[in-house]
Amino acid sequence: MRMFLLGLAALVIVAIAGISAPWLQFLLSLAIAKGLAALGVAILLRAGLISIGHAMFFAIGAYATAFLTRNGITDFVSLLILSTLIATAAGVVVGAFMVRYRAIFFAMLNLAVSMVLFSLLSKLYNITGGTDGMRVARATFFGIAPGEQTFELIVFLTSLVVVMLVGFAVSAYFRSPLGEALKAVHTNEIRLEYISIPVWGVLLVGYTISAALAGLGGSFAAMIIGHVLPEMAFWTESGHLILVAVLGGIGGVAGPFIGAIFLELVHTFAASFTDAWSMIVGAALLFVIFFLPSGLYGLINKKRGGSAV
Amino acid sequence: MSKPLLKAENLEISFHGVKAADGVNLEINEGEFLAIIGPNGAGKTTLLNLCTGYLKPSAGHVYLDGKQITHLSPRQIAKRGIARAFQIPQLFTDHRVIDNVMLSNAARLNLWQMLSPLDRPRYRDEAMELLRMFNLADHANDLASTLPEGRRKLLDIAVALALKPRLVLLDEPTSGVSAIERFGLMETLMTALRQAKVTALFVEHDMDVVRRYAERVLVWNRGHVLTQGRPEEVFQDQRVIETVVGAV
């Protein structure tokens, strides 16, 4: 209950910040989009699996939105749902193969598949626009096409509602036997098999949920930015998602969102002072690894904050 | 005469040329408590690995209720009613003690129930009952990794029994348990097994435990069954005294 109230209070604070300073809306919406994808990565980290290729689902969600708008589907909610479903389907297909592997093999195979997608997005110029990417037309809300500022405000507020809904859903998943079994994969796979819980199935469900979240984040990002690029699937983007998850902490649902917002803010402010902003971001990460092993989330929830690394 | 619940026929397996099972035949009847004894390295744990699908024999078959289970996975075999407790306890160390038992309970749930909360009154009550039986109720909310070795062993057995198996295979249930607690543990275990009408096969090094609790003893040496029978007969056998009793 305490964490629920804290989460709600945090969302209200973010909403007030965004409404009172409209220039923050774009930044916060984008942070939430990345936070959704980072939550997907954090789900796999609970099972002890590091994916260095999860940006592929972020890109699939983003490109799905771009293709759908190109084909006349412009309704905001429909775009989010359909793009998430496409990323989910991709998660099932890729996951069925990935969950057979562990440790470095899992990490590298995800990396390899994501780089194949990056290459396809870059090279298939006639379909994907190549390295120029694709423009994403501004979405409509129940048939109404809003102006730019209204659009940004609606997307921002919708992203907060989505964070709340996703928060409830993922928390419920973590507390369910499937979610607890996912965590148990990290500590004792053999015992799971011996109590007749299929590790393969547990991981596939986890992988699919993580892909769906990344796809949802990607769809948001596509609509917020209004443009998609192959770089969305590049391995550095996957590394960025891991960074966000580790920075925020994987002990709870809030961690990746805290990490994403923190990183976006540090990035924005550091970049306004110096070109060497990545040095400041790196120093922030080092600080978290050394002094906050449960991530920024561990500051709020010392008791339950899971290890970030 | 009760029918064999588990039957192994001509089991063979070798590691680097050393035969750990060489044409082994074994039967355990419904409701029976069978002890397997033998010197270290005799292949006793290998037998449990073969019966639970962790290892596949190079020859021979394993049957449960007359149906072959030789090539099934540990998960499929567990689903058919064979649970296992390990020599080195296999726990979910990042979970609470009660979560370990509740997860084992949850293995019987359908997919929809697998998505509902694990910590619900019904599952909690069921798990607490088992934890009370093994004197672990006071540790229910502790992390499994914080338990001392003896209690980890008890929890490992509780996790196996939470599956409500028909047959439980126990690999040295009293190892790691202090001499004072040993018979207390076995009394608890035997009561739990009798109450739940569970058949048990246990590998054991403590001959006093075997004498007191086994209904039948199978002596294993160098991949062969040396002899088997009632404890009082087996422990009179000169070969057993020479190879096993004197050696442990």
TrEMBL record, chain A:
<feature type="transmembrane region" description="Helical">
    <location>
        <begin position="153"/>
        <end position="174"/>
    </location>
</feature>
<protein>
    <recommendedName>
        <fullName>Branched-chain amino acid ABC transporter permease</fullName>
    </recommendedName>
</protein>
<dbReference type="InterPro" id="IPR001851">
    <property type="entry name" value="ABC_transp_permease"/>
</dbReference>
<dbReference type="GO" id="GO:0005886">
    <property type="term" value="C:plasma membrane"/>
</dbReference>
<feature type="transmembrane region" description="Helical">
    <location>
        <begin position="43"/>
        <end position="64"/>
    </location>
</feature>
<keyword id="KW-1003">Cell membrane</keyword>
<keyword id="KW-0472">Membrane</keyword>
<dbReference type="Pfam" id="PF02653">
    <property type="entry name" value="BPD_transp_2"/>
</dbReference>
<dbReference type="GO" id="GO:0015658">
    <property type="term" value="F:branched-chain amino acid transmembrane transporter activity"/>
</dbReference>
<feature type="transmembrane region" description="Helical">
    <location>
        <begin position="241"/>
        <end position="265"/>
    </location>
</feature>
<feature type="transmembrane region" description="Helical">
    <location>
        <begin position="204"/>
        <end position="229"/>
    </location>
</feature>
<feature type="transmembrane region" description="Helical">
    <location>
        <begin position="277"/>
        <end position="300"/>
    </location>
</feature>
<feature type="transmembrane region" description="Helical">
    <location>
        <begin position="104"/>
        <end position="125"/>
    </location>
</feature>
<dbReference type="InterPro" id="IPR043428">
    <property type="entry name" value="LivM-like"/>
</dbReference>
<keyword id="KW-0812">Transmembrane</keyword>
<feature type="transmembrane region" description="Helical">
    <location>
        <begin position="76"/>
        <end position="98"/>
    </location>
</feature>
<keyword id="KW-1133">Transmembrane helix</keyword>
TrEMBL record, chain B:
<keyword id="KW-0813">Transport</keyword>
<dbReference type="GO" id="GO:0005524">
    <property type="term" value="F:ATP binding"/>
</dbReference>
<dbReference type="InterPro" id="IPR027417">
    <property type="entry name" value="P-loop_NTPase"/>
</dbReference>
<keyword id="KW-0067">ATP-binding</keyword>
<dbReference type="GO" id="GO:0005886">
    <property type="term" value="C:plasma membrane"/>
</dbReference>
<dbReference type="GO" id="GO:0016887">
    <property type="term" value="F:ATP hydrolysis activity"/>
</dbReference>
<dbReference type="InterPro" id="IPR051120">
    <property type="entry name" value="ABC_AA/LPS_Transport"/>
</dbReference>
<keyword id="KW-0547">Nucleotide-binding</keyword>
<dbReference type="InterPro" id="IPR003439">
    <property type="entry name" value="ABC_transporter-like_ATP-bd"/>
</dbReference>
<feature type="domain" description="ABC transporter">
    <location>
        <begin position="6"/>
        <end position="247"/>
    </location>
</feature>
<dbReference type="Pfam" id="PF00005">
    <property type="entry name" value="ABC_tran"/>
</dbReference>
<dbReference type="InterPro" id="IPR003593">
    <property type="entry name" value="AAA+_ATPase"/>
</dbReference>
<protein>
    <submittedName>
        <fullName>ABC transporter ATP-binding protein</fullName>
    </submittedName>
</protein>
